[in-house]
User: Which sequence fits this backbone?
């Protein structure tokens, strides 16, 4: 049986970190929780994806977003009394933030090429 719970009444803004291959720390999604099920599959409304790079960030609107529970790394409620983004960070265009973030991810991958399975290979040798 497929049971889905719908969140009614109190509107909850949440942050979800989703596992994404090649993205250190995962993708960060901010949205309003509308529904979830026993597998922690989520439906977010008014979703925004944010990328943080140094002292700046970029964001793009994603709208209605469905997230499979098996991809969720972290789920957190956002305190409505606190801004979602640190006001000291500079907001830049999504394309610039995304490009800078991809360059950062490539640098991290080059610096640690054995992350994500290299340890097991070293033990087998």
Assistant:
């Amino acid at each position: 049986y497929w049971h889905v719970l719908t969140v009614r009444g109190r509107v909850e803004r949440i942050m979800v970190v989703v596992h994404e291959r090649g993205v250190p720390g995962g993708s960060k999604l901010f949205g309003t929780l509308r529904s979830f099920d026993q597998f922690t599959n989520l439906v977010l409304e008014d979703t925004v994806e944010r990328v943080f790079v140094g002292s700046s960030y970029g964001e793009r609107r994603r709208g209605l977003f469905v997230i499979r529970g098996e991809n969720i790394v972290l789920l957190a409620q956002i305190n409505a009394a606190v801004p979602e983004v640190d006001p000291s960070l500079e907001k830049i265009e999504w394309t610039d933030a995304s490009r800078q973030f991809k360059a950062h991810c490539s640098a991290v991958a080059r610096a640690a090429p054995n992350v994500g399975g290299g340890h097991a290979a070293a033990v087998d040798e």
